[in-house]
Design a protein that fits this description.
Structural class: alpha+beta
Distance between the termini: 21 Å
Strand order of the largest sheet: 1-6-2-3-4-5
Number of strands: 6
Strand content: 25-35%
């Protein structure tokens, strides 16, 4: 059986709207959602802005991993901005916030996400 994030960490976030630079509790962007789930896991992750210039600084605090575990970040290529972040739920699923859908849970191994994955980070 594949490990999953406890639903208590994310279930009440599903359906929250996407809003640029939002850190909750009423709306999230992809970084805000990552930060909220990490906080709920008891991890202290520094806040950073959702822009390309901030990404190298954030990555300097992360460790790239080959085998993702629930709670790890998924860094994906995107168009606007240049990248997108999701949170590994397990079993090939991620929780992420994107426009216009808001916070959703989808398979990162399915189209279009599987072709966009840059890597997994802890």
């Amino acid at each position: 059986m594949t490990a999953l994030l406890p639903q208590a960490l994310w279930l009440n976030l599903l359906g929250k709207p996407f809003r640029e630079d939002a850190r909750g509790p009423d709306a999230y962007d992809c970084v805000g959602l990552l930060l909220e789930i990490q906080r709920r896991m008891g991890r202290n992750v520094p806040d950073w802005q959702s822009n390309t210039a901030e990404l190298p600084g954030a990555l300097s605090h992360w460790q790239r991993v080959e085998t993702p575990e629930p709670g790890d970040a998924i860094l994906m290529y995107s168009n606007d901005p240049d990248w997108h972040i999701g949170v590994v739920d397990g079993g090939g699923y991620m929780i992420h916030a994107h426009n216009p859908a808001g916070v959703t849970r989808v398979r990162y191994s399915s189209f279009p996400w599987h072709k966009r994955i840059e890597g997994f980070y802890r």
